[in-house]
Design goal:
Alpha-Beta Plaits; 22 helices
Length: 675
């Protein structure tokens, strides 16, 4: 439950050492460079755009090659291989790959060239197939399609847009031609949409014959081939076979590079990291002999980094006062349990320096509420075991994924706890199995350790609202802690203690009322002293809010009006407390659906078919129920944190600590511990 204190460092070193200093800082990965911190008209900035673009292009080329290899020579990996995390390589291996970068670039160029040629071959195959398909209706034509005729005859080759016989075609072509008309008409093929035809006539009649044919929709082929159609189709088929053989050769050549995949991954990240270094290099102000940079570093590492840079590069490193702490980046430090919800907190917003880190408190309520919403012992055990197995099998998975799985592991344990408290284990699976297959008719075998919500939902509703009130009061207490931390004692009493008194008093006044009795199903009677104390707490709290909420205003009328408006805010407390009824609703939904699944699964009876049916329906039904309700529990638990809990004290606004480090997509470099 802490925000790491940051130290601002100012670094000045010889200009010739700027790349060495940046490479050292990048390998350490614990300094956030302030890229716009120094402004001096006497200093200039190097233009590294061209070098950065070159390295980025190289990295993209290796990425493309790795995708091609994954397509042509897939690696044998499991369904969960993505959880394995980046490949661990030594600094020595990285340097070896960097040393042979020219050869690797040549390999990449060859692979990309092969891929481009494959694309061209496939384009030719597509073109050949389209042309062959277009020539199918002309297969009966024994002359080239672009034949115009002989010295004395004209040949008209084309199509008419409807089914037409040779006789009808001849009649149409011979119209108004003096007898005897020397015309020949042939139908090559017919489809429902067109007829392919050939008409031969004397050259002197050509214009008239073509005019006649156009009157019935005659049209020349759009792309006639300079060959007999059957011969052209054979040429297309031969070219297709040749292109396919060439594609196989090219693919085999690409596959031959599969054993270089590891080097390609290392090279891709090497160039990506260099591109990031040159990006930062292009933001560093420098003179003819020196360069300057500023950065944030965790305070406990500042001395080590300063000594390293001073000893290795003769750099001058000074610690600076942080000044306005809100400008510091935020890095959280929590225990092994609580750090798993840091990602959930970051999705809302990180805290600023000088504010409270709510991660620890949030983690406790988060796990409890998630378990109450899912609330099934079987589901919780499955979730916890599944997460534990994945964490054990893939110890180097991405940090964010590992944190999420650890969070769901604890949520699974909480779910199992609340499941046994409510008496739910895959719904009523134990009793259903005992009744269906063993004839058990007695009392339930798995009894709740606390009570069964389905039989007493109003009791659970009361407890849900109680947990909600505790959650909200905890948020208000954290706000009070911030006020004390900032020595705002007036604000602590006026804005925190007053609301504790007001809400606490109203709650104690509500409990003995008839309204509460109708909900709880029981009448609670307090001693007169407690009732008097409740009224006093509510009155004192309300008067304090009324007078002190607008304490920044000198006008008492406006001050009282603002205080009255704040008192009206008690209605938001009521709606917030009622929001925790979702703990009841989702918990009941999980149990009811699970019981319905068990009832459906048992409908087959005690027969062999019934056993098979039970197993299939049980597995499918409970898997779906677990997935849906786990998602619902996750969403609504987040809502209770973000809306109700954070609404009482937290506003985020911090910027994440983003250290200058290697940009790795595929690998993780095992750094020298001496750095």
């Amino acid at each position: 439950m802490a925000i790491v204190k940051m130290q601002k460092l100012s670094i000045c070193a010889n200009r010739k050492n700027r790349k060495g200093v940046l490479e050292t800082l990048q390998s350490l990965g614990c300094v956030e460079i302030i890229e716009d911190g120094i402004e001096d008209e006497n200093l200039d900035i190097s233009d590294t755009h061209e070098a950065r673009a070159r390295f980025e292009k190289s990295a993209e080329s290796f990425d493309r090659v790795l995708k091609l290899l994954a397509s042509y020579a897939p690696e044998k990996t499991g369904a969960l291989a993505s959880l394995a995390g980046p490949e661990m390589v030594t600094r020595q291996k990285l340097n070896e790959v960097a040393g042979e970068s020219s050869r690797l670039q040549s390999d990449v160029s060859a692979i990309l060239k092969d891929d481009r040629e494959i694309t061209e071959c496939r384009g030719r195959i597509l073109k050949d197939r389209n042309q062959a398909e277009a020539l199918v209706p002309w297969m009966n034509l024994g002359i080239p399609m672009n034949t115009e005729g002989t010295k004395t005859t004209a040949v008209l080759i084309g199509t008419v847009p409807e089914t037409m016989t040779a006789e009808a075609l001849l009649a149409a072509a011979s119209k108004e031609i003096p007898e005897p008309a020397c015309i020949s008409a042939e139908v090559l093929s017919q489809t429902g949409e067109m007829t392919c035809v050939t008409v031969v006539c004397l050259k002197k009649d050509r214009d008239k014959v073509e005019e006649n044919l156009r009157s019935v929709g005659f049209a020349r082929p759009s792309q006639p081939v300079n060959a007999v159609p059957a011969d052209a189709v054979r040429e297309c088929e031969e070219d297709i076979r040749a292109q396919e053989e060439r594609i196989k050769e090219l693919e085999a050549d690409i596959v031959s590079y599969a054993d270089r995949r590891e080097d390609f991954r290392i090279a891709a990240d090497y160039y990506r990291t260099r591109a990031e270094k040159y990006r930062v290099l292009g933001t560093i102000p420098q003179s003819k002999s020196a360069f300057f940079l500023e950065g944030w570093v965790p305070a406990d590492q500042a001395d080590r980094i300063a000594k390293l840079l001073s000893d290795r590069y003769g750099a001058i490193v000074e610690k600076e006062d942080n000044g306005n702490e809100e400008d510091e980046p935020t890095l959280l430090a929590n225990n092994a349990f609580s750090r798993n919800v840091e990602g959930v907190l970051a999705s809302y917003g990180l805290p600023k320096h000088g504010r409270v880190d709510p991660t620890f408190v949030m983690s406790i309520f988060y796990v409890i509420f998630f378990g109450m919403m899912l609330s099934d012992g079987g589901y919780g055990i499955v979730m916890a075991i599944g997460c534990a197995v994945l964490l054990k099998k893939y110890p180097r998975m991405a940090e964010g994924t590992a944190k999420m799985l650890k969070l769901f592991f604890w949520c699974g344990l909480s779910t199992a706890f609340w499941g046994f408290m409510y008496g739910g284990f895959f719904g009523d699976a134990i009793d259903t199995v005992a009744k269906t297959f063993f004839g058990h008719t007695g009392d339930p075998i798995l009894k709740p350790l606390w009570f069964e919500p389905l039989k007493d939902p109003m009791r659970l509703l009361i407890y849900c609202m109680l947990f909600g009130l505790i959650h909200l009061f905890t948020g208000l207490a954290l706000k009070g802690y911030e006020a004390l931390m900032n020595h705002d004692y007036v604000g602590f009493f006026s804005d925190i203690v007053s609301w504790f008194l007001f809400i606490g008093g109203l709650t104690l006044m509500l409990i003995p009322s008839d309204i509460f009795a109708s909900i709880a199903g029981t009448k609670i009677v307090f001693p007169p002293a407690v009732n008097l104390l409740a009224k006093a707490m509510a009155i004192i709290g309300a008067l304090t809010i009324l007078v002190m909420s607008g304490r920044g205003r000198r006008n008492w009328g406006l001050r009282i009006a603002l205080g009255a408006y704040d008192i009206y805010g008690v209605s938001s407390w009521l709606s917030d407390v009622l929001s925790y009824s979702r703990l009841l609703a989702l918990g009941l939904a999980t149990g009811v659906i699970a019981s319905v699944i068990n009832m459906m699964a048992s409908m087959g009876g005690r027969s062999v078919v019934g056993v098979i049916m039970f197993i299939v329906v049980f597995i499918l039904g409970h898997t779906l129920n677990l997935a849906i309700n786990a998602l619902g529990a996750y969403v609504h638990t987040n809502r209770l944190q973000f809306v109700e809990f954070f609404g009482k004290f937290y506003d985020g606004g911090g910027s994440a600590f983003r250290p200058f480090k290697a940009v790795n997509k595929y690998i993780e470099v095992k750094e020298d511990s001496s750095l």
